[in-house]
Structure to design on (548 residues):
């Protein structure tokens, strides 16, 4: 039941996108998100869709797998579209009871919907093709200039990678405890809202205890190996740019240029 | 009155790149009152198999029957099944959550919708059966030692009065003394309450002394299924899949190779001693 969440998951395969430097992927994803907001016309979205399609094909991740992860945002998508549809003032298209649907409303609702879908798909392609460790390494290296401002960059990225590392572990643990309590007759699925909230206690108490125990063990193991972050620490797999990475930067820059041009011209 | 598995297959993450067959065409019969050892390496499908027995997992294909009824039938009362087929997970102490041990044991019977009186009676009874000391009943389960916690967790399942008790590696992480205590306790429950027990383990040594039947799992298949003596006679094949027969089996083999004409099918130290005495005495 919990395994169905694919948003933010890594998909193991070998593709050009998987082999790219994580920094390139982070920057390209940011570029893509920005580009979605600089255009608001049909041609712009067509180019964005083409770019996204190319990325999906290059990533070799089955589209079914990508869109399975989207199920989590259907509700958000629906709310955004409904609100924009009914609450945008402008030229009325039709109205019934107290609800007015305007031309502008339809336009904005569709635009927001498309933007949201592209945005989530785009960023999930990044997480699907980049392991959490690569992702935090990339972030650390991109945030390096902030060290001059005394931002604890290494510590932040370390915390992030530990947090990400723990998600699947805690998910598995939740699954296990849930099953153990179900074996003792616990019921997580039926009953009133209050009953269901109450039924979570047998799940949450052991889960928290196990999370604290694991955190403690990890801290102990790190201390036993004299871990200290930041200054002078080297990496086992340092990030090095290759030709393909520069090429990818070029593609992203060209794409942004085209999108800005499209945004200005049309 | 039995559990029957009919050509059960189970695949994790079907239709993705991570698809993994965990159970391959398992057909088994588990009659009442048997004491069964389920043995296999880590990842051989033992844990997956036992979760099929109380309906926590649904076979990808094939069926599981409890007392002649298909447990995956939508009409079937699975909550009732989980009371009758009690499952004690690995490291069961990790599921404790109540403020004291007694309350925690009450959780199972309370979920069955019994009266407060009956719930407490069962909890008391279960804690007594596992030999839990009276003075610790109202202690927080988190203050207990590992072995005691495990007793409370086992009592938590026993309080539901199961007809079949399944224990997943009940001795994992315990010291030798705690291990023997828990195993003796389980053998005792089997003998005195007449319930069917399925003991999951990867240690032949643990199992050999107690069970009537051993099922060996390997890569999702039931490789051997029979009385301990019979299964241990395949000790060479067992070694190949990373398991081993009890040490006495090897002692007897070596004795025989050294020219002492002992029978080699002893599975416990006592049997081996008797056999050696018989040969030497003659």
């Amino acid at each position: 039941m919990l395994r169905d969440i694919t948003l933010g998951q890594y998909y193991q395969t070998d593709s050009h996108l998987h082999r790219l430097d994580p920094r390139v992927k982070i920057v390209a994803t940011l570029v893509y998100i920005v580009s979605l907001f600089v255009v608001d016309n049909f041609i712009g979205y067509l180019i964005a869709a083409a770019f996204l399609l190319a990325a999906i094909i290059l990533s070799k991740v089955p589209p079914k797998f990508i869109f399975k992860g989207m199920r989590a945002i259907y509700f958000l998508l629906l709310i955004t579209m409904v609100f924009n549809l009914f609450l945008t003032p402008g030229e009325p298209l039709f109205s019934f009871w107290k609800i007015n649907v305007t031309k502008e409303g339809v336009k904005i609702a569709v635009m927001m919907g498309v933007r949201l879908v592209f945005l989530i798909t785009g960023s999930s392609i990044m997480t699907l093709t980049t392991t959490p460790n690569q992702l935090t390494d990339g972030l650390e290296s991109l945030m390096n200039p902030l060290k001059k401002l005394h931002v604890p960059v290494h510590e932040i990225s370390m915390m992030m990678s530990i947090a990400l590392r723990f998600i699947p572990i805690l998910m598995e643990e939740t699954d296990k405890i849930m099953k153990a309590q179900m074996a003792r007759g616990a019921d997580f699925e039926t009953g009133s809202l209050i009953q269901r909230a109450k039924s979570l206690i047998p799940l949450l108490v052991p889960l928290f205890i196990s999370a604290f125990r694991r955190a403690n063990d990890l801290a102990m193991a790190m201390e036993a190996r004299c871990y200290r972050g930041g200054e002078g620490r080297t990496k086992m797999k340092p990030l090095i740019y290759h030709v393909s990475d520069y090429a990818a930067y070029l593609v992203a820059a060209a794409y942004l240029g085209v999108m800005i041009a499209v945004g200005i011209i049309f | 009155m039995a559990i029957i598995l009919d050509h059960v297959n189970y695949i994790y993450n079907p239709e993705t790149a991570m698809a993994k067959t965990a159970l391959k065409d398992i057909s088994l019969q588990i009659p009442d009152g048997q004491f069964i050892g389920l043995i296999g390496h880590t990842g051989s499908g033992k844990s997956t198999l036992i979760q099929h027995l109380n309906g926590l997992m649904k076979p990808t294909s094939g069926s599981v029957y409890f007392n002649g009824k298909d447990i995956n039938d939508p009409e079937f009362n699975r909550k009732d099944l989980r009371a009758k087929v009690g499952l004690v997970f690995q490291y069961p102490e990790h599921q404790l959550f109540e403020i004291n041990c007694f309350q925690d044991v009450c959780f199972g019977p309370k979920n069955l919708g019994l009266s407060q009186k009956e719930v407490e009676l069962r909890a008391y009874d279960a804690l007594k059966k596992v030999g839990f000391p009276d003075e610790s009943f109202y202690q927080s389960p988190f203050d207990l030692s590992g072995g005691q916690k495990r007793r409370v967790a086992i009592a938590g399942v026993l309080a539901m009065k199961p007809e079949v008790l399944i224990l997943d590696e009940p001795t994992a992480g315990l010291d030798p003394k705690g291990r023997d205590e828990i195993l003796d306790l389980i053998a005792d429950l089997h003998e005195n309450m007449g319930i069917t027990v399925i003991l999951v383990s990867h240690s032949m040594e643990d199992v050999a002394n107690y069970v009537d039947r051993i099922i060996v799992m390997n890569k999702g298949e039931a490789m051997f299924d029979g009385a301990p003596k019979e299964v241990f006679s395949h000790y060479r094949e067992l070694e190949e899949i990373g398991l081993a027969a009890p040490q006495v089996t090897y002692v007897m083999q070596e004795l025989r190779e050294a020219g002492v004409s002992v029978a080699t099918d002893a599975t416990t130290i006592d049997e081996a001693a008797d056999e050696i005495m018989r040969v030497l005495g003659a």
